[in-house]
Amino acid sequence: MVRWKPDAVGRLIQAAVTLFGERGYEATTVAEIAEAAGLTKRTFFRYFADKREVLFMGSEQLQECWVMALTHAPPGAGAMRAVDAGLDAVAELFVDRHALARMRAQIIATNPELQERELIKLAKLASALAEALRARGIADAPAELAAQTGVTVFHCAFGRWVQQDDPRALRRLIDESFAELQAVVAA
Amino acid sequence: MVRWKPDAVGRLIQAAVTLFGERGYEATTVAEIAEAAGLTKRTFFRYFADKREVLFMGSEQLQECWVMALTHAPPGAGAMRAVDAGLDAVAELFVDRHALARMRAQIIATNPELQERELIKLAKLASALAEALRARGIADAPAELAAQTGVTVFHCAFGRWVQQDDPRALRRLIDESFAELQAVVAA
Asked: Which of A125, A135, A145, A143 lies closest to A60, judged by CA?
């Protein structure tokens, strides 16, 4: 008999991040993650290719959310404004994930392979945003520049967000980072 | 008896890029690269860990050159101006490498693993520039934002440079990309 397991993905992520934090990323096995979540290895592999991917499912959701919101920005919005409009939805998505994001950031900081993975995910995010901008009729160069600038601002703000205590601060930190970037670029 | 081999590195890079272009990156071996350069495998491995690294020695030189020039920018220059000052030296470094850079760009475009490597190198470049800015007394956030913006502008301009015919156009294309970024960010 199969028991119904609500939010298997959420439980696996929580269990993995907790174990990575306690025992180290390298030392933790998929079997241990599944057991801590009260699930089987088979269930784990239904959702994740390997233990690394547990740390990056959030990156996929971030990209989907941002691209979707950018695509639905008001038709007259220019490249940078459409990118920024997407960040309202992104900031909202992360409100409930502050504790998890802090633990995740610490784990990634200990492992060069995870850091490389994170950089690649950010670059793919920028490519996806640029593509969504081009689909709005923005030319290649401004699409690439606005998308990459959006990711730069988000990354800077996210780094600050996981180092402070207010889960709702992300949107404000994004605005502050964007204002700093404008000042740096105009100087 | 060992014959003196002037510019072994340059010859290995030229031979590798030519073979990668003719036969494909995957199908080319280190032995073939060494032979085409008139050198031994042993000499190859004195300079490169593997065939992939042949394509990224230029990235190392780019980083060294840019960091050095940024570090020696006038003491009063702010973050973005110091980053930009470094780009004079970078543009000069690439004048003689236009044909090679075009071939390299085509090879990297065919291989996802090489594309990931390229993204990681660009991210490391941004980190190195940010560190050099902090060493000039720039605070963390403007250092990160100016460094990343410099890499964004360089990457955009470089992509245009390899798609046109004038080897000396890089500096102008950088200026144009930076002006476009300023316009995008101010809008």
From this structure: A125
State whether residue A1 sits within 8 Å of chain B by CB.
no
In sign, the C-alpha dihedral spanning B142, B148, B149, B150 is: positive
Cβ pair B177:A152 closer than 8 A: no
What would the two tokens of residue A143 be? 């699409």
Task: Report chain B's terminal Cα–Cα distance, integer Å.
Answer: 66
A164 Cα to chain B: minimum distance (Å): 15
Which residues neighbour A32 within 8 Å (Cβ) at sequence distance 6 or greater? A19, A23
Say whether residue A96 is in contact with chain B using an 8 A CB cutoff: no
User: Sign of the C-alpha dihedral, residues A94, B131, B63, A148?
Assistant: positive
Predicted confidence (pLDDT) per residue in B97-153, tens digit: 999 999 999 999 999 999 999 999 999 999 999 999 999 999 999 999 999 999 999
Measured between CB atoms, does A80 come within 8 Å of chain B?
yes
The closest alpha carbon to B130, from B154, B116, B150, belongs to B150
Which amino acid is located at A15 in the chain? Answer: A
Distance from chain centroid for Cα B34: 23
Task: Taking each helix axis as running N to C, give the angle between helix B79-94 and helix B140-161, from 0 to 180 degrees, rounded to the nearest 10.
Answer: 30
**For residue A181, which amino acid is it?**
L
Which residues in chain A are contacts of B181 at CB distance < 8 A? 145, 149, 185
A85 touches chain B (CB under 8 A): no
Task: Please calculate the CA angle A97-A101-A102 and round it to the nearest 5 degrees.
Answer: 125
Nearest-CA distance B111 → chain A (Å):
15
CB spacing of A187 vs B148 below 8 angstroms: no
Judge: B80–A187 Cβ closer than 8 Å, yes or no: yes
| Per-residue pLDDT reduced to its tens digit, B117-133 | 999 999 999 999 999 99
**Which runs of E-coded beta strand occur in chain A?**
none
Distances, alpha carbon B154 to alpha carbons A144, B131, B149, in Å = 12, 18, 8
